[in-house]
From TrEMBL:
<protein>
    <recommendedName>
        <fullName>Ribulose-phosphate 3-epimerase</fullName>
        <ecNumber>5.1.3.1</ecNumber>
    </recommendedName>
</protein>
<dbReference type="Pfam" id="PF00834">
    <property type="entry name" value="Ribul_P_3_epim"/>
</dbReference>
<keyword id="KW-0170">Cobalt</keyword>
<comment type="function">
    <text>Catalyzes the reversible epimerization of D-ribulose 5-phosphate to D-xylulose 5-phosphate.</text>
</comment>
<keyword id="KW-0862">Zinc</keyword>
<dbReference type="GO" id="GO:0005737">
    <property type="term" value="C:cytoplasm"/>
</dbReference>
<feature type="binding site">
    <location>
        <begin position="141"/>
        <end position="144"/>
    </location>
    <ligand>
        <name>substrate</name>
    </ligand>
</feature>
<dbReference type="InterPro" id="IPR013785">
    <property type="entry name" value="Aldolase_TIM"/>
</dbReference>
<feature type="binding site">
    <location>
        <position position="8"/>
    </location>
    <ligand>
        <name>substrate</name>
    </ligand>
</feature>
<keyword id="KW-0479">Metal-binding</keyword>
<feature type="binding site">
    <location>
        <position position="32"/>
    </location>
    <ligand>
        <name>a divalent metal cation</name>
    </ligand>
</feature>
<feature type="binding site">
    <location>
        <position position="65"/>
    </location>
    <ligand>
        <name>substrate</name>
    </ligand>
</feature>
<dbReference type="InterPro" id="IPR000056">
    <property type="entry name" value="Ribul_P_3_epim-like"/>
</dbReference>
<dbReference type="GO" id="GO:0004750">
    <property type="term" value="F:D-ribulose-phosphate 3-epimerase activity"/>
</dbReference>
<feature type="binding site">
    <location>
        <position position="174"/>
    </location>
    <ligand>
        <name>a divalent metal cation</name>
    </ligand>
</feature>
<comment type="similarity">
    <text>Belongs to the ribulose-phosphate 3-epimerase family.</text>
</comment>
<dbReference type="InterPro" id="IPR011060">
    <property type="entry name" value="RibuloseP-bd_barrel"/>
</dbReference>
Length: 220
């Protein structure tokens, strides 16, 4: 299984966003965009205007992660802005299956996200509705946090669940992903690495992405 890297622009240079994107666009498999509402998480970040601006200039896939309350009120604006992948938190909506189907029916790839302490049984009956799941490996809201090791067991269990059900599942991980933790999550079963701080604060972001992509994947 090929390892993909989605640089997270939460850690990009806000005054030189275009320069940050140019540094990674040729090697990144998608750009990850965190949307925070100041309610679901204690921070504010980007809106659909940034997604629209990126879409107007770049062909790269845009992976939009809604960290918001009532995501059903936000999905249309981000789909219209040009998101290729659009995900929300299982903790944030009452009707996740309906929302996943709505996103897919509009030609956008949906994904579901779990906070570190949220158990996998909350999405057990949704695995047939998605082909991407995002496991948060820090509590969401801020970049540069320390990786939570207990999430490795969750990643491993999710991969086992997908294999048992015969689902070709992309498992994304986000939070404290660097050159030390990336091999751990890949070995556990993740195949998409979302990394912001490690990529964008590096002297050579391209080299970091290359190293992450070179990590071998072991079947579980």
């Amino acid at each position: 299984m090929n390892i993909k890297v989605f640089p997270s622009i939460l850690s990009a240079d806000l005054l030189n966003m275009e320069k940050s994107i140019e540094l990674v666009k040729d090697l990144a498999d998608a750009i990850h965009i965190d949307v925070m509402d100041g309610h679901f998480v204690p921070n504010l970040s980007y809106g659909p205007a940034l997604v629209r601006a990126l879409r107007s200039k770049y062909d790269i896939s845009l992976n939009v992660h809604l960290m918001v309350e009532r995501p059903e009120n936000f999905v249309d604006m981000f789909m219209d802005a040009g998101a290729n992948h659009l995900g929300f938190h299982i903790e944030a909506t009452y009707h996740p299956q309906r929302l996943l189907k709505y996103i897919r029916d509009h030609g956008v790839r949906p994904f579901i996200t779990l906070n570190p302490a949220t158990p996998l049984n909350t999405i057990e009956y949704l695995l047939g509705e998605v082909d991407m799941v995002l496991i948060m490996t820090v509590n969401p809201g801020y970049g540069g946090q320390e990786f939570l090791p207990f999430c490795l067991r969750k990643i491993r269990t999710l991969r086992e669940m997908a294999l048992k059900e015969g689902i070709d599942l992309d498992i994304m991980v986000d939070g404290g992903i660097d050159l030390n933790t990336a091999p751990l999550v890949v070995e556990a079963g993740a195949n998409i690495l979302i990394s912001g701080n490690t990529v964008f604060t590096s002297e050579n972001p391209k080299e970091v992405i290359i190293k992450m992509k070179s990590i071998g994947y072991k079947e579980v």
